Structure formats: structure tokens, C-alpha cells
Amino acid sequence: MRRLALAPALALAFAVPAMAQGLPEPLTAAPGDPARGRALVLDQQRSLCTLCHAGLVPQVPFPGDLGPDLTGVGDRLTLPELRLRLVDSRAVNPDTIMPPFHSLDGLSRVGARWQGATILSAQEVENVAAFLATLKGGSE
């Protein structure tokens, strides 16, 4: 019985760092396009999402397991929470291995080609967040 009472408290404790950082407002005036976000998620040259995450699309034969399974992530996280994790997931987990897709703060050992540039543009972040928000109920 006591374990059930602790579960909401633990969930809140894990949510506090994100709330303390503040959730980013939309990065662009244009809303995210889920279809473009899906295409970017599947682009193994740009985003590499499927290298680390399962649950993004059923067509990926061997999804990664380094990051959390994203099945139903649209049920668990709001659009601003998804955006925060894409912009810079270190705001939620300072020890994450997920790269900051739209932040240059505190980076080291960045290749010359990528210095001063984010991995994804503001609109691309919005597109991917919009796609992830569609992943509800354990299906695409």
C-alpha cells in the first residue's frame, strides 16, 4: 500500500527539474508538421532517433535501446515537455547521452564542421515534437 503512495511523489520529483528550468515556448510562429517530423525521425543521416529509441514507427526493423522506448510518448508528455527534451534534454537529465538538438550551451569536443550550428533548426524541432505528440495509445 505504501508503494502506491510513493509512486506519485516519485513522478513529481522527477518532473521538478524540468519545471524548474521552465518549458520552452514554441520556437517558431509556424506550428510543427507531424509528417515532416516523422520523416526527420526516420532520416538516419540527420536525427538518428531510431538508433537509440524504439516505439517511433513500426517499420524500423531494429530500433535502438539506448534511450527510452517512445511508444505512447504523446500520452505521457506534453508538447512543451517534448520540445524541452529535443532542445536540450540535459534540462531534465544532466547525465543524458542524448545530444542537445537545438542548443549550443556547454558543448565540448564539437567537430569543426558543426561548431556554432545546432543539429536541428527551430522548425525541425517543432516538427519532430509535433510528430512525437501524435504517438498515443501505444501506436503510431
UniProtKB/TrEMBL annotation:
One of its GO terms (molecular function) is metal ion binding. InterPro entries: Cyt_c-like_dom, Cyt_c-like_dom_sf, Thiosulf_SoxX. Residues 1-20 form the signal peptide. It comes from the Bacteria. Residues 32-136 form the Cytochrome c domain. Keywords: Heme, Iron, Metal-binding, Signal. This is Sulfur oxidation c-type cytochrome SoxX. The gene is soxX.
